[in-house]
Amino acid sequence: MDLPRSLKKLIDSFERLPGIGPKTAQRLTFYLLHVPQSHLDEFAENLEKLKEKTVLCSICFNVAESDPCTVCADRNREKSLVCVVEQPLDVLAIEKTGKYRGVYHVLHGAISPLNNIGPDELYIKDLLKRLNNRTVPIKEIILATNPNMEGEATAMYLVKQIKKKNKKIKITRLGQGLPTGADLEYADEITLSRALEGRKEY
Amino acid sequence: MDLPRSLKKLIDSFERLPGIGPKTAQRLTFYLLHVPQSHLDEFAENLEKLKEKTVLCSICFNVAESDPCTVCADRNREKSLVCVVEQPLDVLAIEKTGKYRGVYHVLHGAISPLNNIGPDELYIKDLLKRLNNRTVPIKEIILATNPNMEGEATAMYLVKQIKKKNKKIKITRLGQGLPTGADLEYADEITLSRALEGRKEY
Predict the structure, then answer these.
(1) Cβ–Cβ of B28/A7 closer than 8 Å?
(2) Which chain B positions have a beta carbon within 8 Å of A43's beta carbon?
(3) What CA–CA distance (Å, rounded) separates A201 from A192?
(4) Residue numbers of the domain that contains A99
(5) In this structure, are B83 and B34 located in the same domain?
(6) Cβ of B4 and A41 within 8 Å?
(7) Half-sphere exposure (CA, 13 Å, Cβ side) for B135?
(8) What pLDDT, in 10s, does the model give residues A1-34?
(9) Chains A and B: how many Cβ contacts under 8 Å?
(10) pTM above threshold 0.80
(11) Which residues have a Cβ under 8 Å from the Cβ of B183 and sit 6 or more positions away?
(12) A63 in a structural domain
């Protein structure tokens, strides 16, 4: 027995998504068979129009509906404080804390020689250009790339490049240590040594 | 910062799928932002046309492109042997073994009072109707519902109903025991007792 072609095609489409294997793709497709046609049409429309209505902000390169994005256009945001992140989702995560009042710069990735991603594939040049803006001088850059190999390498590279351009800018990195709710017993050595280094006095 | 509306909508669509939570929905949506528009259009088309080109086979109620389906229409299949399964995916799993030459009957679910699914919500009446077919009398019915609470209850109910209609039909249930590659040490008690009951002589 062969699966009907329309099912096979949709299974293929789902399988192309990251983290979705053949079994999950089958399960999702068969689930959608029981869903009203209007739901399918809506889903399809949302897919087609995904990119039509989004642009990259020409200042921070975040995904947005308008250019500049709502954050860059917001007068109450501190333009002298720039937080550099790898992905738009990272911006979302930081915004959810409600503790950050500066602006962002989205690199759209991290330096990863194994995956053929060098500095030129990221929006690094555009970040360095922002340093030249004399009307709103940048005082501090927070490097909020991921605390893994690629993210650390990217941060190191950025520190070098930023210092070449402008030695007065304060460059910081997000604090590292134990995540809230964690168990000391199960923490890995690197996290624990970073937590010791970064200990705070009462 | 708010996400662009087109992204939010697609995230919503993904979140409605079973087993996909808000984080996965976000990840998939942002992944699709980097995909060529032609891929998105193809995905959308596959969704829209999913149900247009599929029908339920009027004999076995499997999802198919034609009625009757390729299995029911195949002259080489033994029509006197019927395997009863819960879902179309179960048919696929059995077909992959290459060991089954009979036909199927898809119930589209299992009896589950907690979810308000009684015998009338399933294609059980249609199975009982097939027993009356005098031109191709059924000799054996294999109950291949899932070996869990709902599947077992459905099998029990089917045995009763089939025996009421026709006492001559042989009714069997798929063998239960240890799955290949399993570890005796980690097998649960029920599986292990079923394996003992179903032991085979050399």
Answers:
(1) no
(2) 13, 44, 47
(3) 17
(4) 77-173
(5) no
(6) no
(7) 0
(8) 678 899 999 999 999 999 999 999 999 999 999 8
(9) 150
(10) no
(11) none
(12) no
